[in-house]
Amino acid sequence: MFSLLTSLSLAADHDIAMDLRVVDPLGNALVDQSVALPYDQSFNLTLGKQDYVVQVTAAHDGRRATVETHVFKGELEEGVEIATPKLDLAPDEKRKKTSTTAAPRGVKDANGTKLSLLDWTVEAEWGWTGRDWVAETAKAKLEPSQIVLVWAGAPLYRSATDDAPVRMKAVERGPSGELMPVEVIEDGERVHVRTLGSPGVACHALSQNGLDGYVIDLWVAKEDLTMVVPRSVEVTYSDDTATTLDAGVALYPLTGKTQIADSELIVRADTGVFLVDVALPRTAVGLGYGISEARAAVTSEQVVQPTSSGGVGATLAGPVKIDGYDSRAIGQGFQVDETYELEGLERTGVVIKTNCSAHKVTVQPARLKAVDENSILVGVDVERASVTPGEIPVWWPDGSAAGKGLAPEGLEFAKKETRACQKVVLDTTPMPVVEGVVYEPEDDNLLELCWDKSDL
């Protein structure tokens, strides 16, 4: 299986730079600067009565960079190669290599000490020098009615100046993290957003969410939004495999990875079901999106039985894995939408789909199983839009409008009062039952909302 990067176009030379340092045995720098790749330079020097040629070459293939330093005794064409310190570098990796040879007679260091050995040293680091797409995307202009994804642990504010935020859940940010889709009302450093009331069949529907049924205006820092696919994109590979991502798929830059071409960015895509690494063009990376039409439910007589790590197949770029797969789920299988023939390979081609993605992958034939009464089916979920947002006006404690929603059970109005307030628990994840233990939500997980008697 090829890695993701081997199937991609090479990075443009002007977008790659290397900090290169080559030092001779007397401590003199033959090269000590940032160089463009590819690089090829030779240097002549004399130590004692011996002539040397040092040839330095450096290149990259978009995935790794190599530096080779060839030391010749005598002329380049007719000399004898005596040392070859080499480096093989990942992006943003800094390494150093020294090769040692015997010294000819008469070689002294700067202090006049005779040398019996000569050290030839090369040190290098390389990386992307082009535009920072991730930083640009984080500042992208948002339009009203676009949908954005807020990570579930982000501070949520009641106004643009509120200094006492709440949080949906105490969770970490990143792939596999929980996300909440919200609608943009107005852009800004704090983005004015509105909860959807019901997640529908969006890629990321925040489960155990206390605001289901409420359409509430909130504010969130722009830096707490997650990159997304703004419109459907298909990535195809030379082996006829492919990945299609619909609008709203969350994107995360890979740790230590940057753009490898001036038209592609390597990301980890979170479809809400699968995690898959993919290279996307600049136009397929954004901050806001429009809701896509829901995919049709899959009816199949076959499922793919996942591997122990949750793999359900692979494209040329790498495996497609179920996020958070539990290998103890006996009988679990991912529904197959269709199969296709592969020439010359001992694997079967299948198409599998989620609410917002489709994956044309190859699998081992033994992992294809017939659906039976014990099968636990995973696939497109068309039943997820089960919450109907309430239409009752909801207010903040200061009397300003918060939005619309439901009237909670047990709401009580004090005598002669026309407004009653109640704290809504935002994280409704069931807690384990332990005798004698009572769980109390944290203050920042409670959102106080109010209702007017005349609206009920």
Structural classification: mainly beta
Principal-axis shape equals elongated
Using DSSP, what is the number of strands? 32
Count of discrete structural domains: 3
Distance between the termini: 62 Å
Amount of helix: under 10%
Oligomer: single chain
Overall pLDDT metric: 84
Question: What's the main sheet like?
Answer: 7 strands, antiparallel
Taking Cα atoms only, what radius of gyration do you get, to the nearest Å?
30 Å
Number of helices: 1
Describe what this molecule looks like in 3D.
The protein has one helix at 133-138, and strands spanning 16-23, 29-36, 39-47, 50-60, 65-73, 80-83, 86-89, 94-102, 117-128, 147-151, 179-186, 190-195, 215-221, 225-226, 233-236, 242-245, 250-253, 265-270, 274-280, 302-304, 311-315, 318-322, 332-335, 338-340, 348-354, 357-363, 368-370, 376-378, 392-395, 401-405, 419-425, 446-452. It has 456 residues and is mainly beta. It folds into three domains: 15-128, no CATH class; 233-378, no CATH class; 392-455, no CATH class.
